[in-house]
Write a structure and sequence with these properties.
The protein has 181 residues and is mainly α. The chain is built from 9 helices and no strands. Helix content is 71%, strand content 0%. The protein is globular and about 50 Å long.
Length: 181
């Protein structure tokens, strides 16, 4: 009944390529997640990822809509779950419709925050993946580079080492500049 333990086992099943067993494991325990905080969205993300890996794209999309993005949360963890799943669906050729728009709108408000490089990378996925937010994506590239140059905290070091270039690469990829990526 412990969602953290459930999550740990889901990782083991994914890393050992036990997708169908992972589906059964999570489906058998999902009733325990009612009343959990937003961490339940992440465990549902794992369940959707199993569906995606099994080629069950409609099921993955349904889980995205019903569980992963059950609420239009602005919490960075919820945005990262959603962006990571949409990105994977895009890479499989799944038409995700206008789902990037909602994530891009939340991400645009955070272009200059730079609290966590992990979050910035997922904000960039969202911004670069919605054509109407490419200017915001370019602004994130610029503010990430500026943050990396001007600050001393640990996340600025991560941004200098990899984050700014990762953001630039994501935007280049979405613009079709694969060499630049």
């Amino acid at each position: 009944a412990d969602i953290w333990a459930t999550h740990a086992v889901a990782h083991v099943m994914e890393m050992t390529d036990r997708r169908a067993e992972g589906v059964a494991w999570l489906d058998g325990l999902s009733a325990n997640w009612d009343g959990c905080n937003n961490f339940a969205f992440h465990v549902w993300w794992h369940r959707a990822l199993f569906a995606l890996e099994l080629g069950r794209f409609d099921e993955c999309m349904e889980l995205y809509d019903r569980e992963v993005r059950a609420e239009p949360s602005r919490d960075f963890r919820d945005i990262t779950n959603a962006a990571a799943l949409l990105w994977r669906m895009d890479q499989e050729g799944v038409d995700v419709g206008d789902r990037w728009l909602e994530l891009a709108e939340h991400s645009a408000a955070r272009v200059g925050e730079h609290v966590l490089v992990f979050a910035d990378a997922h904000y960039m996925l969202s911004l670069a993946s919605d054509p109407g937010h490419r200017d915001d994506a370019q602004k994130l590239v610029e503010t990430a580079a500026e943050y990396a140059r001007r600050h001393d905290e640990s996340q600025a070091a991560v941004m200098r080492a990899a984050g700014a270039e990762l953001c630039r690469a994501i935007l280049a990829y979405r613009e079709g500049d694969y060499g630049g990526c």
